[in-house]
């Protein structure tokens, strides 16, 4: 299949390599225990230490965040789509310039298509280490992260400076901005006033898909969770389907001109691509390139759930806010 074997296009959950210095809040108390992962594409990490598992991007990036209980990811926004699903744990998502416009608690398997143009943060409110998987629109993931001004100010108090280039410099390590490079400018009050204010009633019904509802909707047929015909109707440059045992068509071979990324949430799955076969376990990610013949089906009986992310011809990962 193309120039890589199937095994080379699988990122195993147990082999994910974390970066603990990926973002500006690395030293900020309450956020200093985060682990960030870039699974497909370079993502939006601000650190040269970030390991990238698969460099090729299919029109979007896939990453993950692992956090222990009570650990928070600080308020930020992106220029392109950001869609999360919870793989492990219980998480609180919150949004708004101050993080007070709305919130909801996400359980395992829940999917959140965060509207672009709003600041968002999330924290692990469970009792064990949690993991959330993220799909970011665009090959370059929108060019980076836009931080709420207070996040940048707090980081400076703990020795971290974000350059206008998007690169982090740690004064605790003796690093300083290179000559001619300025710090990242803070958003002005006028700029902040342009960001929309969205309530829970405006966000949750249109941007959240609960796992129990996803499974119930797709108990006989493959269900589109995100897409033009999906439970969440959006066209951000990719679409997301949900697969589980008992659906019609599972195991049938087909050829696609699109990139497809298989992300296992529950159970073990047998995938075959151009006559190569592998078994995918929970948390594993498999990137299948275009113009290959593939099939996917549960490998054993029991509870199963798999998210399939597919590239589309929509506008470069930019999604519409409410």
Automatic annotation (TrEMBL):
Residues in the signal sequence: none
Q: Which residues form the Cupin type-2 domain?
A: 68-133, 246-295
Q: Which InterPro entries match?
A: Cupin_2, Flavonoid_dioxygenase-like, RmlC-like_jellyroll, RmlC_Cupin_sf
What this protein is called in its record is Cupin domain-containing protein
Q: Which organism is it from?
A: Marinomonas phaeophyticola
């Amino acid at each position: 299949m193309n120039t890589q074997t199937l095994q080379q296009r699988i990122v195993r959950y147990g082999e994910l390599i974390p970066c603990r210095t990926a973002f500006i809040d690395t030293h900020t108390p309450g956020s200093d225990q985060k682990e960030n992962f870039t699974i497909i594409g370079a993502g939006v990490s601000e650190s040269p230490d970030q390991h990238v598992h698969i460099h090729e991007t299919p029109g979007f990036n896939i990453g993950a965040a692992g956090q222990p209980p009570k650990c928070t990811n600080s308020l930020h926004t992106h220029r392109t789509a950001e869609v999360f699903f919870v793989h492990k744990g219980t998480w609180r998502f919150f949004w708004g310039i101050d993080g007070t416009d709305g919130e909801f608690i996400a359980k395992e398997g829940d999917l959140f298509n965060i509207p672009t143009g709003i600041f968002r943060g999330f924290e692990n409110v469970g009792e064990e280490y949690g993991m959330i998987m993220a799909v970011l629109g665009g090959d370059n993931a929108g060019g980076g992260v836009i931080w709420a001004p207070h996040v940048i100010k707090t980081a400076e108090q703990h020795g971290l400076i974000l350059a206008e280039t998007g690169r982090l410099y740690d004064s605790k390590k003796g690093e300083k901005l290179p000559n001619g490079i300025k710090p990242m400018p803070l958003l002005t009050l006028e700029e902040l006033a342009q960001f929309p204010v969205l309530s829970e009633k405006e966000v949750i019904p249109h941007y959240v898909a609960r796992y129990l509802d996803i499974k119930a909707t797709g108990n006989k047929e493959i269900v589109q969770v995100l897409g033009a015909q999906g439970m969440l109707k959006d066209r951000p440059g990719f679409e997301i389907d949900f697969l589980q045992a008992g659906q019609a068509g599972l195991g049938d071979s087909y050829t696609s001109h699109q990139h497809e990324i298989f992300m296992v949430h529950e159970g073990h799955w047998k995938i075959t691509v151009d006559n190569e076969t592998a078994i995918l376990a929970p948390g594993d990610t498999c990137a299948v390139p275009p113009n290959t013949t593939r099939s996917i089906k549960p490998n054993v009986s029991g509870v199963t759930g798999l998210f399939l992310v597919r590239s589309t011809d929509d506008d470069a990962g930019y999604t519409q806010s409410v």
